[in-house]
Amino acid sequence: MLNGVINVYKERGYTSHDVVARLRGIFGQRKIGHTGTLDPDAEGVLPVCLGNATRLSELLTDRSKAYRAVLLLGRTTDTQDAGGRMLKERPVHVSEQTVAEVIKSFIGNYDQIPPMYSALKVNGKKLVDLARRGIEVERKPRAVEIYDICIEAVSLPRVTMTVQCSKGTYIRTLCHDIGEKLRCGGCMEQLTRIRSGGFCIETAHQLGELEKSVQAGEETRYLIPTDACLSDYPGLTVSKEADKLLKNGNPIEATACSALEEDRALGEFARKGAFFDSQQEDPVIAGSQRSGCYRLYSCDGGFAGLYRMRKGGKLYPEKMFLSGGK
User: Fold this and answer.
1) Which of 39, 81, 177, 243 is flagged as catalytic?
2) Of the candidates 115, 131, 132, which has an alpha carbon nearest to the alpha carbon of residue 81?
3) How far is C-alpha 72 from the geometric centre of its chain's CA atoms?
4) Mean pLDDT: which of 48-62, 177-191, 247-261 is highest?
5) From CA 83, how far away is CA 40, in angstroms rounded?
6) Is the separation of the CB atoms in 18 and 48 below 8 Å?
7) Do the beta carbons of residue 318 and residue 293 sit within 8 Å?
8) Active-site residue, 177 included
């Protein structure tokens, strides 16, 4: 079984579930999962975890995202994107300066009401299933954060912009909210995810490319080792005496650990920028939320898992990756 993460370029027309199903067939293994849903009409970065890296899914989903979106002003739809049923069309009598000012006003924290056409559940039922039956229910606003918005081009009624945001942000809802604040309405016309955590679009691979690599006998060509995806955590090696404790998932004295002589997770993949774009630092990681956690390796160099430092100078297991090792 393969263990690691593949930076997949999801093409338009595929659901995230479709991508996982295709990869199960390509690699011939069941244990595969994605790290954050992309709508069928959206494209771009979709990190997919294989084997023991599926335990990374929650950690990777928590990280920030970056999108390139085209906002179409003057049109409101039921899905908040251009593919939905048009609800209202209004003239766009606003200046480019006003548009820019309103867009920039969304930078920071704001409460976003999730769209009805989403996979979120209310009382055990998916909102999208209710929406397709013509049922609308009340949704509680969710706190999201827009780290930055860069306006790349304005040709009214269209605006092309790059958005860096927290997990759980709906870009089509952002487009809708911008349109409402401008009093002309708006929807999302196009969406590309250009970054998810440390995975960037420049090094994402289409399904056809991955299939060819497997057919050529190069199954691991684009596979990123599990520990390399956690390179923002410091790495430690345990002593021979503590090795058994590590492999059994027991707490370990910090004094039984030493810093890696060479950080393996910052090896071939990270050094060459094969998946991490150092120019677009993840604001979540930069915000020091990673403090206190360490990657722990056995004395023979095998990656064991993430440990967190607790009071008293002991490291306790946070998430283990022992099946399959490094």
Assistant:
1) 39
2) 115
3) 25
4) 177-191
5) 11
6) no
7) yes
8) no
